[in-house]
Design a protein that fits this description.
This protein is about 45% helix and about 5% strand. The chain has six helices and two strands.
């Protein structure tokens, strides 16, 4: 349901939320190696998230990536939408272009409650929550 980029972004933010802060910034190399994400791929979406002020970064010899207190309050859903450019949880599961309550696809009524529940659950997960033990939130990008 999520793109590899969104899965990798969440994995990266999990690592940053656990191991980084304004005093201990993490380099893209550290994050890539620790989270098992291709560095070129990682650098691209970290730059995108930094431009959107969803993550902080500084340049230079002591530079790197970190999350501020305000950034840690952001929803994981906000990150997914920022990376993917749209809210995939609002899309039709059959990818019909005009599926909605007024014009439902053949399975719309069967999945809408579960789809909305999943969307709301992910929306309620904050980046701060990623610093906790995520055994319940294991994400595999492969």
């Amino acid at each position: 349901m999520l793109s590899h980029t969104a899965k990798y972004a969440i994995k990266a933010l999990h690592y940053i939320s656990k191991h980084g802060n304004a005093e201990q910034k993490l380099t893209a190399v550290q994050i890539a190696e620790s989270a098992n994400i291709p560095k070129a791929f990682l650098s691209k979406f970290l730059k995108q998230l930094a431009q959107l002020d969803m993550i902080s970064s500084t340049k230079g010899p002591n530079g790197g990536f970190f999350l501020t207190e305000n950034q840690l309050k952001q929803s994981v859903m906000d990150v997914i939408v920022a990376i993917e450019g749209k809210d995939r949880f609002q899309q039709c599961v059959l990818n019909f272009d005009f599926c909605n309550a007024e014009n439902p696809c053949p399975i719309h009524d069967f999945v809408i409650q579960e789809k909305d529940a999943l969307r709301n659950a992910i929306k309620n997960v904050k980046l701060l929550d990623l610093s906790d033990n995520l055994n319940y939130f294991a994400i595999k990008a492969n």
